[in-house]
Design brief:
4 helices, alpha+beta
Length: 144
């Protein structure tokens, strides 16, 4: 997917109403107060490691281009660590969705506040392999 298509997807998420109950659709998970979507992830079986590494590098470039474009639109993002949310989850504390899901998969997020909603963009790169996950959440629920 191109940056322009990712931006269109984010804009659609921003304009959608939030559902009353959590549910999955073809593009992600939505629940009361949020929509979460995986934009790109390493979900395939790769025969060629070189191709996999190229796709990972493309995902990093896509993330950087999205951060640049969203920053152009909405100013500098907050760059937040999810370390404390991760620690609180491990300790048994309840963290509201979509933040609990993000805390499990991501260490850091770029975060913008626009029109009463938070837009969180996360990039997770596997430390032990060439995997990746680029995801976005639009929510009215404040970060923990």
């Amino acid at each position: 997917m191109t940056t322009a298509l990712y931006l269109q997807h984010i804009d659609r998420l921003r304009s959608r109403e939030f559902p009353a109950e959590r549910g999955r659709d073809g593009s992600g998970v939505s629940g009361p107060g949020y929509h979460s979507v995986c934009l790109s992830a390493d979900e395939e079986e790769w025969e060629d490691l070189t191709e996999r590494l190229e796709q990972r590098a493309q995902c990093v470039a896509d993330h950087d281009a999205l951060v640049a474009e969203l920053t152009r639109r909405w100013q500098e993002p907050q760059w937040i660590s999810l370390w404390s949310a991760q620690a609180r989850l491990v300790a048994g504390e309840s963290i509201p969705e979509p933040w609990a899901e993000f805390a499990v998969g991501f260490d850091f997020l770029h975060l913008w506040r626009v029109d009463g909603r938070w837009i969180a963009l996360g990039l997770d790169l596997e430390e032990e392999g060439p995997g990746w996950d680029l995801s976005v959440t639009v929510t009215e629920i404040a970060p923990p």
